[in-house]
Amino acid sequence: MNLLIIGGTRFLGRHLVDSAIARGNTVTLFNRGKSNPDLFPHLETIHGDREHDIAKLSGCTWDAVIDTCGYVPRIVRVSAVGLERSVGRYVFISSISAYDDAIFRKTGINESDPVGKLKDESVEEITGETYGPLKALCEKTILDLYGERGLVVRPGLIVGPDDPTDRFTYWPVRIARGGKVLAPEKPEVPIQIIDVRDLSEFIIKLIETDASGIYNATGPDHELTLGTMLETCKQVSGSDASIHWASVEFLKQHNVQEWSDMPVWVPDNEENAGFSRVDVSKGVRAGLMFRPLEDTVRDTLTWANARPADHEWRAGLRSDREQELLRLLNQ
What we know:
Helix content is 33%, strand content 16%. With 331 residues, it is an alpha/beta fold. The N and C termini lie far apart (61 Å).
């Protein structure tokens, strides 16, 4: 196939390129040339901003376009309309966050469940409250315009090498460092993650089989717990880390934030019952597969250890803050 990727040089995009090429496809990139501009020198790259430069893609045709970085419906519509006659299929990468907040009380959220809505659909500011509903509006834009030629993939937390968010990377690195480690709530808390390479392979498979509609894409295909993830980090790194579990009440009392200070974790309560129990059976039937967690941890740790020593972490606790909290916890 001949594929166009909008973006393609940061996290998911770069692994999509690798997966597509490994499966014998041809790739063209369309991006602004600002992130890792020298990453794929052998690929045809068209520089531009979709909002203003979509005409640069006219006169070319592709079997599919993969939109990895659409957040605002108005701007996504620009590329969707501009490419309508140039691409056979429009693949939009959305998010599990597109679901309505209230639906996260339900376990087994599937692709037919309701999505979030905005009172004012002209809003374009991306915040924690608008991100999901804006993604849902982007989805609608694609599916309304492309019909059976439209494909929407809703990933959960994407993890693995090259992740710029540190939302998973914090744990393999912190556990490898050893010593007393602060962890949230309890070992039995369920989590869902997907290795970026598994997600990339799945997306390319879907395109190759002319899939359409909506697919959840997180994992694995069995219940994974926070305790299992941390134990896997210990085993892979050979660490002597000892895990100290802090209650939800303790973390709230000391203003420790879920998902950011304590990455991957949200409290396992009635309000979030479905957050880490999303149904991915449709994706599994369509070819979604999961590599061993050990491989994800090992490869993430290898990549992270090659970063500069002064890397500024975007998620997780600073060492001094963690030590302070451990002291308070063990008083």
